[in-house]
Amino acid sequence: MGILLISKKNQKILLSLARTSIRYGLEFSKPVSVQLSQFPKELQENRASFVTLHLQDKLRGCVGVIEAIRPLAEDVACNAFASAFHDDRFPPLAQKEFSDLKIHISILSTPEILKPFSEEALLQTLRMGVDGLILKEGHRKATFLPSVWDQIGSKEEFLTHLKLKAGFPPDYWSKDLEVFRYTTQGFGE
Fold this sequence. Notes:
The protein is of the alpha+beta class and 189 residues long. The chain has helices spanning 8-28, 41-44, 72-85, 95-98, 119-125, 155-166; strands at 48-55, 58-64, 101-108, 112-114, 132-137, 140-144, 178-182, 184-188. Strand 1 and strand 2 form a beta hairpin. The chain is globular and about 50 Å long.
């Protein structure tokens, strides 16, 4: 479940790309087009990311993908744009908000399936502050990034809130529930 670490130099490139994509989106209503040949090889590899936006220390958008479906540079550009303009919890970003926006990027490891036979077994294997978690059953699916641990005080609370996010009751457990965990490398402005 290891994650390939992104160098400091490439972190700066990705943060700049995310900001550029949002700025471009303000003007042209679409993400900036990524020319992969202009990026280091590390950023041309298929990787999954989330881009989280904060304005005055409050969440302003967070969009990403769980599976590596496109090159990392392209993924970050698309997710930055989507976080700013297509997170259903917020109105599209306004020009006046752009300069105060803080960008945080999380690069995900490949999710590892867990086969807990009970909720108690899952809670025992869950690593506070380290694990991101995906719950999936039927058409319901939700994830919490490891950074969510900063706002949640216990494993039980983390799991309960994730169940609610997925549309399950707080006490829900089923043999058909699929559980995955992953880690992230996070960095920001």
